[in-house]
Specification:
Elements: H1 3-17, E1 20-21, E2 24-25, H2 34-51, H3 57-70, H4 73-80, E3 92-96, H5 106-114, E4 118-122, H6 129-141, H7 145-148, E5 149-151, E6 161-165, H8 168-177, E7 183-186, E8 190-194, H9 201-212, E9 222-228, H10 234-240, H11 250-265, E10 270-272, E11 277-280, E12 290-296, H12 299-308, E13 313-317, H13 345-350
Parallel strand pairs: 3-4, 3-6, 4-5, 6-7, 8-9, 8-13, 9-12, 11-12
Antiparallel strand pairs: 1-2, 10-11
């Protein structure tokens, strides 16, 4: 397939996904293959939580809407304009995908296909349904995708390179098993926010989206905040109350209750608003239902520390303290060129 043909298919996929919004599922008769896939997608959105309790309809809609906004002619052209694909010879790229949030591995699949390679995909057991439906839609648009995408349930075989995402423990296995092949191995990462005390309530409300979207399960979710000494949490907690409905989800509530009990039995001091626990901690990976915080003495020292810990951090959120920081409310709305772990996936794929 020509790259232009692949791009056209993904633009049409974006148009298909644009029909599914949380408060407005609207069928567009101009979208291709709606007769085959529109009702299937509606049914899958409604049933996803039965396959994975964290995949609520609200979060599925959010993911689909994010991808529909990304898969436009303008965005794809902007993303691809910085690369030269003329030397690419199609190879088989193994993909071991995560499943912590809906469609978290789709960017890797998109990158492999759009760079001209073939994908051998091992899905996470936690996210089996959505990507398969999207691939079926692509095949319906152009049957040649059937030759470019293979799903496997066993170990990867007959691959020339691999992109694998997992925990720190599985990453050690990946690094050993794939050491003789070109690879990208992704490990655990977390995102942090730097507060100065000058944030508006609206900005802190947006931060709530970074903390609670997908129940905080993504590496781009803020799991820790850095605050100046004597920080007044009053406005922060007022802003977080806009996310209070999260406690009505049983899996989240169970985690909140469990972690609260563990923290209290260990005599940790907590700040608690009945659905979010704030614990002072120098770590980055806070458990579900909690948010770590830590005081800083100077922004200069904090920036130096975060630079030193950059392999542990996915995103830094702030009020434009640094050019590479992410604005409040935007961590789970990455652009196509916002690569996981800051590793340029397309450059890797062009040069394998």
């Amino acid at each position: 397939m020509l790259q232009s043909e692949i791009i056209t298919s993904f633009i049409e996929l974006g148009q298909f996904l644009s029909q599914f919004k949380e408060n407005s599922i609207k069928r567009n008769e101009e979208v291709k293959n709606n007769d085959l896939f529109f009702d299937k997608m509606v049914g899958l959105i409604e049933s996803s939580q039965s396959h994975n309790g964290w995949f609520t309809p609200e979060n599925i809609y959010f993911s689909l809407d994010s991808w529909s906004n990304a898969l436009t002619d303008e965005n794809l052209s902007k993303w691809l304009s910085n690369y030269d694909f003329s030397t690419v010879k199609p190879k088989n790229v193994g993909l071991i995908l995560a499943g912590n949030i809906p469609l978290v591995g789709f960017h890797d699949l998109l990158s492999v296909l759009i760079s001209g390679h073939n994908a051998i995909v091992k899905l996470s057991s936690n996210d089996q349904q959505l990507i398969k439906l999207i691939v079926d839609y692509l095949i319906a648009l152009d049957e040649r995708f059937k030759e470019k995408i293979i799903f496997t349930e066993g170990k990867l075989e007959n691959f020339d390179a691999v992109i694998a995402t997992g925990s720190n423990n599985t990453a050690r296995y990946f690094e050993y098993y794939f050491k003789d092949k070109p690879n990208i191995i992704r490990k655990n990462r977390n995102s942090v926010a730097i507060l100065t005390g000058n944030e508006s309530k609206e900005e802190l409300i947006a931060l709530g989206e970074d903390v609670f979207r997908y129940f905080g399960l993504g590496c781009r979710n803020v799991s820790k905040i850095f605050i100046p000494k004597d920080y007044d949490f009053k406005l922060f907690f007022e802003a977080m109350f806009t996310q209070g409905d999260v406690i009505h989800y049983e899996k989240y509530a169970n985690n909140y209750d469990y972690n609260k009990a563990v923290f209290l039995m260990s005599n940790f001091k907590l700040l608690d608003n009945e659905f979010l626990l704030l614990k002072e901690d120098n770590g980055y990976a806070s458990p579900i239902g909690s948010l770590f915080y830590e005081n800083y003495d100077s922004l200069e020292d904090l920036h130096a520390r975060l630079q030193n810990d950059n392999e542990k951090i996915q995103c830094i959120v702030s009020k434009e303290l640094e050019s590479h920081h992410v604005p409040f409310g935007k961590t789970q709305k990455p652009e196509l060129w916002d690569y996981a772990d800051n590793v340029d996936t397309l450059s890797f794929l062009i040069n394998i």
